[in-house]
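Let us work through a complete example step by step.
Step 1: write down the sequence.
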Amino acid sequence: MRRGHNAQTKQRSARPYDDTDVIDARGPRTNQAVMGALSVVAFATGAEWLPGLLALQLAIGLTFGRRFCLPCLLYFELIQPRFGEGAIEDSRPPRFANLVGVVFLGAATASFLLGATTVGWGLTLVVAALALLAAVTGVCAGCELYRLTARLRGVAARHVPRIDPDDVGLDGAGVVQFTHPLCAECRSWERRLGENGERHVSVDVSQRPELARKYGVAVVPTVVAVGPDGQVLRRLAP
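Step 2: predict the structure and record it as C-alpha cells.
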C-alpha cells in the first residue's frame, strides 16, 4: 500500500518541458538555491566572471526553455522523480524573477568590466540574498514584484471595470475565477468557493486565452467579485 502511494505521488500532473505556462513550485526554488549559492561562491573566491556566466545561463533558459536550464534539469530529471511533484503554480512570476536576476547579474558583470568592483559585488550579493531567501522560505521578491505589477495591469475595478456576463456565462452577481487546470492554488479556490456556496464560474485560460488577453489576466488564479451587470466590485486574488 505504501509503495503504491509513493508511486502515485511521484506521477506528474504537469509535463515540465511541455506545460510551460505552469511549473512545479519546487523547480524555481531549486534554481534559486543554485543561483544564490554560486553567487556566494563568486563573492567568496573573487571570481568576477561567474556572475556573467550565471546571467547567461538564466538568459538561455528564458530564451530557449527549461531543457536548456541546468538547474531545471537538475530538478526535473534527478530530484522530482525521486521525491515527487510539488504544488503546481503559474510559471510567469518565477520567469519574471529570473529576468530580474539576468538584469542584476548582467549589471554586476558590466560593473566589473568598467572597474566598479564594489558595485559589481553589491549587485551580486543582492541576487545571492534574494535567491537564497526564496529557496529557503519560498518568499520570492521577483515573483511578488510581478504580482504587484499584475495587479496594476490586470483585472481590477479601476482598470477593467466590467466583465461581460456573456463572456463567462455568469447569470447574475457572483465570482469569476480565471484558472488553469494544472494550477494547485486554482483548485484550492474552486473548493473554497464551492464550500462557501458562492455563485461562481471558472474560466480556463488555457482554453480561453482570448478572454485572458481581453481582461488582462496576468497571473492565475485571478478571482474577482462582480455585480449583476458584470461590474467588478472587488478583487479576491491574487
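Step 3: interpret the result. The radius of gyration is 20 Å.
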